[in-house]
Amino acid sequence: MKRIIIVLMASVSAWAQKPDNNPIIKDVYTGDPAALVSGNTVYLYAGHDEAPKDFNFYKMNEWLVYSSQDMVHWQSHPVPLKVSEFKWSSGDAWASQVIERNGKFYWYVSLTHATSPGKAIGVAVSDSPTGPFKDALGKALVTNDMTTHTKIDWDDIDPSVFIDDNGQAYLFWGNTVCKYAKLKPNMVELDGEIKTIDLLHFTEAPWIHKRNGWYYLSYAYQFPEKIAYAMSKTIDGPWQYKGILNELAGNCNTNHQSIITFKGKDYFIYHNGASQPDGGSFRRSVCVDRLFYNKDGTMKRVVMTTEGIQE
């Protein structure tokens, strides 16, 4: 009996001492995560939240990159891309995503345009997932005057790129209206018309992934933002709303997700405003938790934890 008690006490002690692995980056504030699986490594790209404690808006001048081979230990790399790389932009390193194609890495970013009113989408390129990245076009890929679906001038943000099984690449983006278009094989030109998707309470942050013949489109829902998602058998829809995937992100008005499969497990990457001292809507922190599917292909709600991913 004494031996059983000792073993139980040791087990309880080990459970109680689980480290808090969320947020995964604790030395700076980071937001708008986007992950890329390349080989046996995950590369995490995020905007650097630099706003001081009493500054109540975004202050973001650069994007950061981290890498991991186990989703637990994360290595930081030199700053791979700054707003100043885009000479046509006046600032704001908002949400972005990196995709790999033909041995190169393309980084699609949200910026403020210096001469064309409103937000715009740019693209940078590198031979390495950790950079340095250089402006691929010398101009914006998408400008606000190319879309007339809303009256606001910040609706061309949050780019997300998906390459389908047949090799066709698509760019998704938008605020208040979800937009998408094909990309040419060179990855730096739109191919054809810009289309829209009618999604329930769509705010921003579209993310596309595919699993077992289903397309999943997750997005920020309402404001303050939760994450919801829809499913379709084709990338052009129709899309069927499936519900809320993730609740409000701590004391943060926004939510922004990245969904990946790595070494046979599924992960939900997001930002949270309550996981570090002085955190909030403009001082966010990237976190990771497991993602699970139901037998019918729908996704189970993601529970945000402080433990995160454990060894």
From TrEMBL:
Site annotation Important for catalytic activity, responsible for pKa modulation of the active site Glu and correct orientation of both the proton donor and substrate: residues: 158
Record field: transmembrane: none
A Pfam family matched in the record: Glyco_hydro_43
Family matches, as InterPro entries: Glyco_hydro_43, Glyco_hydro_beta-prop_sf, Glycosyl_Hydrlase_43_Enz
GO molecular function: hydrolase activity, hydrolyzing O-glycosyl compounds
Active site location: 32 (proton acceptor), 204 (proton donor)
One GO BP annotation of this record: xylan catabolic process
Alphabetical keyword list: Carbohydrate metabolism, Glycosidase, Hydrolase, Polysaccharide degradation, Xylan degradation
Stated family: Belongs to the glycosyl hydrolase 43 family.
The name this protein goes by in its record: Glycosyl hydrolases family 43
Organism: Flavobacterium caeni
Lineage start: Bacteria, Pseudomonadati, Bacteroidota, Flavobacteriia, Flavobacteriales
